Amino acid sequence: MRTLTVNLEDRSYPIYIGAGISLKDELYSKHISSNKIALITNEEIADLYLSEISQTLTSFDLKVLVLPEGESQKNLETVQNAIEFLSDNGIDRQASIIAFGGGVVGDISGFVASSYMRGIKFLQVPTTLLAQVDSSVGGKTGVNTRKGKNLIGAFYQPSAVIADTRFLKTLESERFSEGLAEVIKYGLIRDRDFFEWLEVNISEILSLDSKAMAHLIERCCQIKAEVVSQDEREGSVRAILNFGHTFGHAIESLTEYSVYSHGEAVAMGMIMASNMSQKMGMLSSEDTKRIKNLIESMNLPVSSPDLDKNDFFESMKRDKKAQDGEIRLILLESIGSAKITSDYPKEVLMKTISEY
């Protein structure tokens, strides 16, 4: 088992990474101060793993809420139903929530934990690659509205993250690939050597080679932990973690979260951001091609849907990173180096949207 730490003073917490670690009772016990636990999961994960994790947690008074699968569940109705479930089952301020699932379950559970009785403890037990390398770390929680993605939410850190790599073996190939979009992102924004390692190890990654996956997850979590430790609430450098997301969130919103997964939308968004970086004279055409080739090699989409460019632009303006009506973008100066900027000609952005 490998252990990393997100350093946030009194809110610091560990990230545990390893195969089979979700079955270790002591990992939960050391971060839970009450006998009562509410475990929130979804139907797919419940069918696969609820029995075994329930047996692991037999020493606790465990209450289980099973949500339907999918991004469409990230809404206030789900939050209200979850809070009523907690209240009905006697979950008090000393109790803890365990988020047992992918990014959707983690985002909903974290937001519920942040708001129920003004905040109770929660642990992340991510079961998808995307959640293990990205969404379970850093404390971003939230739900969607018709106007945009994650417009309602809170920064609320977990007590611990337990990333069991064993869960990845039952992921569908599409779900695995969507997590690779976030993996590629880390190389692009912060670590050129890691990006080049990904290029060399495509076959090992796609075959779930245990050594390759351990390195991949650990390096992504290291980068995320470093950035979050510097800027917990996205006042400055943390925004680079959204590379490709402003474009990607617009794609998700305009297709009503029903056509593309989050990772697929981010993959397309990263290509758009890379294309714009090249148009701005920052990124070489060779590096733009390398980025597209790696994304495509990880079985992710490289062509965006046919969406109205004005609708696309208006959706981007609703992004949480926008300031005073200006869309802040994360662009690449080179592979491994990103910058946050609002200083670009609008016509370059509109051309990027219309040409992709």
Describe the fold and architecture:
There is one protein chain. With about 350 residues, this protein is an alpha/beta fold. It has two domains: about 1-170, 3-Layer(aba) Sandwich (Rossmann fold); about 175-355, Dehydroquinate synthase-like - alpha domain (Dehydroquinate synthase-like, alpha domain, Up-down Bundle). About 45% of the residues lie in helices and about 20% in strands. The chain is built from 14 helices and eleven strands. It has helices at about 25-30, 45-55, 75-90, 105-115, 130-135, 175-190, 190-200, 200-205, 210-230, 245-255, 260-280, 285-295, 310-315, 345-355; strands at about 1-5, 15-20, 35-40, 60-65, 95-100, 120-125, 140-145, 150-155, 160-165, 330-335, 335-340. The strands form four sheets. It has a four-stranded parallel sheet with strand order 4-3-5-6, with helices on both faces. Strands 1-2-9 form a three-stranded mixed sheet, covered by helices on one side. Strands 7-8 form a two-stranded antiparallel sheet. The longest helix is centred in the middle third of the chain and has 21 residues, at about 210-230. The radius of gyration is 20 Å and the shape is globular. The mean pLDDT is about 95.
Topology:
Blueprint: E1 2-6, E2 13-18, H1 25-29, E3 36-42, H2 43-56, E4 61-67, H3 76-88, E5 96-101, H4 103-115, E6 121-126, H5 129-135, E7 140-145, E8 148-155, E9 161-164, H6 173-190, H7 192-200, H8 202-206, H9 210-230, H10 245-254, H11 262-279, H12 285-297, H13 309-317, E10 329-334, E11 337-341, H14 346-355
Parallel strand pairs: 2-9, 3-4, 3-5, 5-6
Antiparallel strand pairs: 1-2, 7-8, 10-11
